[in-house]
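A quick word before the example. In earlier lectures we treated sequence and structure as two separate objects. From today on, think of them as two lines of the same record. Here is SET domain protein written that way.
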Amino acid sequence: MSTTVLSPLKTWLERYGGYIHPQIQFSQVDAGFSVVASQDLPPDSKIASCPFQLVVTKDSALVALRTMLGDATPLQSWSPRQLISSYLCFHWIIADNSSLKHGPYVDSLPSRDKLRTPLHFTPKELELFKGSNLYGATLDRERDWRVEYEQCHAAIANVNEEWGNQFTWELFLTAATHLSSRAFPSTLMSETPSLTSPTDSEPILLPGVDSLNHARGAPVSWVSSYGPITSPESTISLVLHNAIAAGEEAFNNYGAKPNSELILGYGFSLPDNPDDTIVLKLGGVEGKKWEVGRDAREAEQVWDGVLAMMLGSPDAEPTYEDYLDAAAALTEMVETLLDKLPHASAVEVDAGIREDVVGMFSAYVKGQREILESLVVFARSKEEVGISMAREEGIEVVLD
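And the structure line, produced from the sequence above:
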């Protein structure tokens, strides 16, 4: 993003009481821009702050949309994503409207060609992921978002045909992607800010503060200063606890996230991500899903589910045969997933497959494969338990 676009963002933020550290600059990169220290920054530096009155919430979006679309439009039934995404879209549709207050922020967002979430993949890129959970999650997301888009489009076109013509799927997708990749939980606006997302939390956008990229484990704090909502004293600030050397990038910390979530929501991955997980679903266990991490973390829950299938009754005590059958069933399920999982080694960059997508694909598939392989080892350990149980009964088990 050019400095000619980012300079108005900084000026706009500061006019309303926001802040961007004077010793950071925005550096152009393939995915948009990164935040780099122009001088050495000491620990506990406040990098940016956003006044509450500039935070984009579903309520602020609702007020603006109601002004433009009228009370007859069923905006109250729209989801936070529909409201905020449509609000962002109108900044591209209408050049000048008093209800649209975030022009400098929207102008600073990366263009659509910079976005790398799976809904922005080429057909060949998406095909790479076929056989993985992420492939199905991408199709589910596109279906859900298209339903929301059609509802918004119909309402907008009913008010103004020209607005409806300009409110395209591509425009909505771009706005919704910015929301998914930049949103924070509304719990940050509480007097005790938190990145956790309880059921009553909603996505919000923090102009300026959301500019920093992610680094796993980076020590950061969110600080809320309270006054009246419209007061410049009411702000959300991001403080970085590590010193940043001149020329180094300043990072936020989005929290512990697996590559599946990073790719689907943000459009990037981490190599050998320690937080990688795979979601397993067992048929016959009421469609229950389990999330298993590296080194078979949380695999005991999966095992309990498989073993329960073998027992039939919750009060039954498992026999060695139950253990062996459950271990065999778990092994078969995991090996089936391994067989379906695509291989990264055969992928080459070409006209329909971009290099950064290949990098995401390789990191994701490698993590999925390593988790599944750890589950095979876990299942074999349970098989050994079954064999030991049989020996205690004087039975020697011979496995094929």
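Notice the following. The mean pLDDT is 91. We will return to this example when we discuss secondary structure assignment.
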